[in-house]
């Protein structure tokens, strides 16, 4: 399956990309890397999309790297400030953690990613816009990421109208750039929007070559590709850099049991679920605290902090279960001590964790 338009290809011809020498076929495709990519917008092949010349760099690298030895990885030990209060307080993320952002369409996941790109304390930000609409790519770069965020970012864009091979290559290239900066000792924030479109691209390729469909039309190779991509992120060797990754997962029809969502939950270090009910009520970011979890959180925060988080979740859960009774006046005060205690902290959290400039 070609990456781009096919022209002048004859039967029996040996075909390879223009930027690979015949000798380079043995080592795989070489793509530009290095600090010269900062502030640039490139496609999945490393070609500029921002109207500027090709990146002025002699540093290149293979698209795929060998698997990282898990025993050489540094444990997740340091808290990462994402600049988003509900995440920092209730779903604390560590440097080198890999998180999923699970949401249906139109509940604010791209804007939440933009907030993280602007305010997260990281040396470098790598953004992979995979399989999204072309209009959203420009809007994310100009309005959501902004000039401040773009100055320390590399954006790889492979929108929905390009070849599925190029979409998959775009995701791998964004990860490879993040790995390169991690190997230089820098702390990288990798944002991938979206992991679902990556899986759909692999589904297109697999079905085209005759692989049998399995769960919801996804062939088995899709579920092998996902961990291979995600495992490349994370901490490096001791004293080195890190890649903290956020992958968006599009849950079709808000179905959290979608096969891609279910597989992603199993291979990630936590998940943040965005609620359509909260979004429709005008509460942004629309994070469903009850359905979300950070698996590395207990190793990052104090016992006192963790106890308060558990207490708040219990109060929030009690309030959500009984909110209809309270709304219609059917609840008698004193019937449930936990519910009685939940009103004030839940109301206060609604104002504390909502942003006015979303």
What can you see in these coordinates?
Helix 3 (134-151) links the parallel strand 7 and strand 8. This protein is globular. The protein has 2 domains: 29-301, Rossmann fold, CATH 3.40.50.12240; 304-352, no CATH class. Helix 2 runs parallel beside helix 3 (134-151), helix 5 (195-208) crosses helix 6 and helix 6 packs parallel to helix 7 (259-267). It has 10 helices and 13 strands. The chain has 358 residues and is α/β, with parallel strands linked by helices. The strands form 3 sheets. Strands 2, 6, 7, 8, 9, 10, 11, 12 and 13 form a 9-stranded mixed sheet that branches. Strands 1-3 form a two-stranded antiparallel ribbon. A two-stranded antiparallel ribbon has the order 4-5. Residues 95-278 form the AAA+ ATPase domain. One of its GO terms (cellular component) is type III protein secretion system complex. It is found in: Cytoplasm.
Structural class by sheet pairing and helices: alpha/beta
Radius of gyration: 22 Å
Give the overall average pLDDT: 85
Question: What are the secondary-structure elements, in order, as H or E?
Answer: EEEEHEEHEHEHEHHEEHEHEHH
Helix content: 25-40%
CATH level-1 class of the largest domain: Alpha Beta
Through-space gap between termini: 41 Å
Instruction: Tally the helices.
Output: 10
CATH architecture of the largest domain: 3-Layer(aba) Sandwich
How many separate domains make up the residues? 2
Shape: globular
